[in-house]
Design goal:
Elements lengths: L4 E3 L2 H4 L10 E3 L8 H11 L2 H9 L3 H5 L6 E2 L4 E4 L10 E4 L2 H11 L10 E2 L2 E2 L6 H10 L8 H10 L1
Antiparallel strand pairs: 1-2, 3-4, 4-5, 6-7
């Protein structure tokens, strides 16, 4: 079952908070869960690159550049070469159930020979184009960048 969420505001984060980062926060039990929150979360995570970002914490460039040869679904592992990492170091990444589910769904249809994520059967570099903006609009989320998914992932694993 998907986690309901709301967008944190400055008041909820404290007086020193910045508008630069938005984190998708699970709705506290006292806040209640509504169909609207569930619909928003589901809308955002049906965008496969967004769902994988929330499951792994990878940067947009690592998500959009992800190649099938780096992924071992059987061992539930990805090894991203250092040449494409921001710090230049290879990045081993265990895959959780959500990440495995996303990648499995992608492999069930047409599959690009090298790249995981494509648009019109060609690899793409930016995940925050019109499709991303439309997903945010349908989800009712404003002031949210693709990189905020990385911050959300980090807050969820603590």
């Amino acid at each position: 079952m998907a986690k309901p969420f709301y967008n944190s505001t400055d008041a909820e984060l404290g007086s020193g908070a910045s508008n630069a980062v938005t984190i998708i926060t699970p709705v506290p039990a006292t806040y209640g869960t509504t169909a609207g929150f569930m619909t928003s979360y589901t809308t955002l995570t049906t965008n496969y690159n967004s769902a994988l970002a929330l499951a792994t914490g990878l940067r947009m460039s690592n998500i959009t550049g992800l190649q099938w040869s780096w992924i071992d679904l059987e061992r539930r592992h990805v090894l991203i070469p250092g040449i494409v990492m921001k710090n230049g170091q290879p990045h081993p990444l265990p895959l959780n159930e959500t990440a495995i589910g996303v990648l499995t769904r992608i492999t069930s249809g047409w599959k690009h020979p090298t790249h995981v994520f494509t648009f019109k059967k060609k690899p793409f570099r930016r995940a925050n184009a019109s499709g991303w903006k439309e997903a945010l609009k349908r989800a009712g989320i404003a002031n949210f960048r693709f990189h905020d998914l990385r911050h959300t992932w980090a807050s969820w694993i603590i």
